[in-house]
Every structure is written in structure tokens, then in C-alpha cells.
Amino acid sequence: MNAQPPELRAEVAEIWPRDGRVRIVGDFHGGTDSDSDPGRWHLVSEVRGTDIRMQHELKVEGSRFEVSVPLEDFVPRGPDPSPVGDDGLKWDLYVVRDDRLDQGADGRLRLGRRLDDIRNKRKIMVFPAQEAEDDGVRMTVRPVYTVHEDLSIDCTPGTSGSPGKESP
Amino acid sequence: MRIRYLLLNAYGTGGTIRTVFTQATTMAGLGHDVEIISTVQHKDKPNFDLDERVRLSSIVDVREPKADAPAPGLVARYRAARRERLRQRGGRIVPPGEFGYEAFNRHVEREVIRYLKSVTDGILVTTRPALNILAARYADSRLIRVAQEHMNLGTHRKDVQRAIAHYYPRFDAVAVLTNRDREDYEKLLPGTRLVRIPNAVHSMEQEQSDHTNKIALAAGRLAPQKGFDMLIPAFKKVVERHPDWQLRIFGTGKKKKELRALIEKHHLYNHVFLMGHTDEMEDELTKSSFYILSSRFEGLPMVVIEAMTHALPVISFDCPTGPADVITDGKDGMLIPPKNVDALAEAISKMMDDRELRDTMGAEALKTAQSYAPEHVHMMWEELFTDLVRTSGKSATAAA
B179 and B152 in contact (C-beta within 8 Å)? Predict the structure, then answer.
């Protein structure tokens, strides 16, 4: 009997929302040798329910990856009308290899933290909010875990404070 | 023997309730006639399992009336209105400094007194200062009366301490949890029979930690007493040297927001987690590698001993009272000068550095926990009750 290789996962280890950036450190788990081919990997962030997306290259060393995104990148520009409703918007985060960037949902790994023993992370692993401004749009940006232990970035219309500073 | 335990609220979740349930179950198992009386009852069933041989009753029922209950008649309405007036008035006998004072309004006090006067035989065990004071003043002197103290003397406010000094000598015995507390009470109550009987752990049959997971555990209400506001800065001091360790704090409470803010201030959101309530504390203890108690004060912190039954070494502030009774510094854990954050950090770092130390201390902790095994502790109660029956000249069996 051939055992199936464990599914390749992009697992969050640490999230550092500070100094005007969101830095994410994680590890690849499982997968086959070809999966772990270093190649070039990207963080693809997609506004939920829209086709707005952006990508940032990951720094990969062995199985560890890291990416640091400036806050203002999460403040969406156009299309007009702005996708930001009163409740704000959510960026869902994926890790995608260079050669799969065009494959849509098939070739991407949802970034999350599912291999540890803590469930209901959104209430336990809680991260600080920071405020960001881009083109006059001010937003509060906060990494959050979803009910499925995946990582998203919550952006809600900001109210006060200076750009890049942590909210009280 | 006929034994009655009087609790404030048998339907709550505190350590005292759990302890009394365990005691009552063991006593029933030994063939005694055991009843738990809850001063108030706000729900249908208690949270903890209770052996079916132990009867449970209540004095004041504060449950919402059932929707299908018949409409009250004139007399019932009159009584209800009178009860309501009494409920609005604060207690007259229980000192306002009693932490449970709010529960003892004039109506509750009257009903407890009425109950105490109705009981004339056997052993009556009361379980907190308010009930102890009421029992000392109003319970029938034919009863064998035993007061339990679950908090250390110094924690009680002045008015409660004065009432203790005045009324507790009327008891046949006063039971406290720690040796240090027994000394304190002896000074206040010369001539009163004082015994130290610790609470028993739930069970000694626990799965043991192998001390490999990089998890430190703390648990308790998120309240100033538990000192998590000192533990978080202490953890900050060690996290740079030990970035792969986590601190998991279990419990809920009013200080959650402040503690969360402290975690954010120290950028510990990847390392310190407010876990909330869990129904699987035993599994959580097994998964972790050591336990930390950062309290400002305690009675006898049972969770420390429960942790020891999982072979967890314990780092604890040497606060009044309890930790020094349980932990032998350097053997089964480490005792840190109270409120000394730097020393706490140093101990945590030492424990993280050394798996072998955790193994050795953990094995010793398991041995220490043995003296809190239910069979060991309950024998102490059995001996006390038997001796009181013998020496008091009072009858412990139900009157014919």
C-alpha cells in the first residue's frame, strides 16, 4: 500500500503587527519533494468576495517562510466605488508558488494554523490593530483567525490616530 | 454518623463546592448519612457530579418561577412582597466585609437562622465565614459544630476577623487548610480546637506530563488576586531567550481586557494566550511542562496540587497561604519571593532551560501530591469527626 504524502500546508508560526507593517513568519509542512522545491513563493492576498488581489514575495529558507507587508497595502485602491463598506473588508491570505500564480484556487495554499492543538484561535490568538492611511482612506488593520483557523486581515474604516501607529 | 454540610451555593463552580462534594461523597461511601444544604439555589442541577447517596437540598430557592406555575393567591402575594422587602435590606448578622455579603440579605439570613434552629442532631459543617458566624450564633448547641475556613485569615477584612475572634470559640472544631493558617488562627482563638486538613485532589489517577511540550500553564480567575499582571511581564523577560515557549493562561474574569492590553504592550501576542474556560483542564495539564502560580494570596491553591498529580513541577510566589505548605523549594518546584517579577522570570527561564530538572522535580511533585489523595485527606475528616463524637459527649446519630 502506498501511503499518500501528507498534504502541503503553509502554517503560521508568528504574526507581528507592529511598526506600520504586518510581518508573518510560517513554515511549510508535508508535501512531496517537488512541492518543497524552493522556487519562488508569494503571499497572495485577496479581498473576500471580490477579485481584488495583491502579491508579495516570500523570503524562504528551508521550510521557513517570512513576509512583511506595509500596512497601507491593505488599504484598497479602487475600483470605484470603493469595495469598503461600513463593516470594512477582509483579506484572505494564500501562499502560492511562482509557477502556479495563474492557476487560481487550485494552485494555492490557504495560510492558516491548523496543526497545533488550540482551536477557536480567533478568541485566543488575538492581535493588535494598527491604523493605516493611503490616498486619504484611513483604515484599522488587524490580523485575525477565521472560524477555520485560517489567517485573514480585517480592515475596518479607521476613526482616529496617526497612520502606522498601533491603536490603543 | 449524620453529617450535614452547609454551603452558600452548591449550584456554583468554585473550589469550595467541588471539595465539599468530594468530601460528602467519601463520607457517604463510608456509610454515613450525608446531606448538603445549599443556602441559595438558582438552578435545577448542580454543576459538579454528586453521589446519589448524598442528599441535596436548599434553604432559599431563587429560581425563576416556572411558566406553568399557578398564579399566586393573596397570602402568597403578601409573603412574596414581604420577602422582597427583606431582600432589599442588607444582612444584619453577617459582617459587610464578608466577600459573600451580597448574598446574605435580611431574607436569606432569616431563612438560614430558621434552618439552623430546626436541626438538632449530628454533625454540622459550615463552609465560609458568613455561615460559620450564623451557625456559631444560632445552631443548636446539641449539634457537633465544625467550621471550615477555605481562605487564609489575613485575607479576611477586619470586621470579619473580629467576628471570627468573637464567635468561632463556640465551635467544637475549626478546620483550616494550611499549617501557617493554623498558627494564625491559634493566635486569634486560643483554646479553640484547630485542625489543619487540606483539601483533597480530585484523583491521583492522572495522565502524567512528559515535560517535552514547550508550554507553561497558569490558571485562575482573571482577577487581581491571581497576579497575571505580574506573570505577563515576567514572561516578557524570558521570551527572547526562549522564543519557542508558550504561556497558556486558563480562566475567565473581569481583568481580561487589561491583561490583553498588557500582552499587546509587551508584544507577547505570539507567546502568551488567554485561553478562556476549558472543560478539559486535565488534558491541558498533561500537555504542559510546568505550572506557574503568580497569586498575591490564596487559601490552599488546589490547582497547584492538581497540576502536581500530572507530574508537573510548580513555580510559585511564596504568597500567603498555601504554596509553602505544598511546595518544597528546589525539590518539587520553586518558591519565589512574593511579587518579585525578576526572580519569577529567572525561575521560569531555569525551568525552560532544563528538561531533566522538569523530569526530576515533576517526579517529586507527584510524590508530594500523594498526601492530598482523597483517601488520605478523608481519613483525617473521619478521625476528626469520630474524635469529636467521643470527646464532646454529643450524639452524632439521628435522634430517634
Answer: no
Q: Which of A159, A141, A143, A162 is nearest to A151 (CA)?
A: A143
Q: How does pLDDT run across B95-131, given as a tens digit for each residue?
A: 999 988 999 999 999 999 999 999 999 999 999 999 9
CB B269 within 8 A of CB B263: yes
CB distance B300 to B152 below 8 Å? no
**pTM (2 decimals)?**
0.81
State which residue of chain B sits closest to A144, comparing Cα positions. Answer: B269
Per domain, the residue ranges of chain B are 2-200+374-392, 215-370
Residues 1-60 of A with CB under 8 A from B: 13-16, 18
Of B269, B276, B287, the CB nearest to A117: B287
* Cβ proximity of B315 and B348 under 8 Å: yes
Q: Spell out the alpha helix ranges (H) of chain B.
A: 15-29, 74-88, 106-118, 129-138, 158-167, 179-188, 228-239, 256-265, 281-287, 302-309, 323-326, 341-353, 355-370, 374-392
The domain B2-200+374-392: what is its CATH number? 3.40.50.2000
Interface residue A85 vs chain B (CB under 8 A): no
Interface of B with A in 364-383 (CB under 8 A): none
What CATH architecture does domain B215-370 belong to?
A: 3-Layer(aba) Sandwich (3.40)
Give this complex's ipTM: 0.89
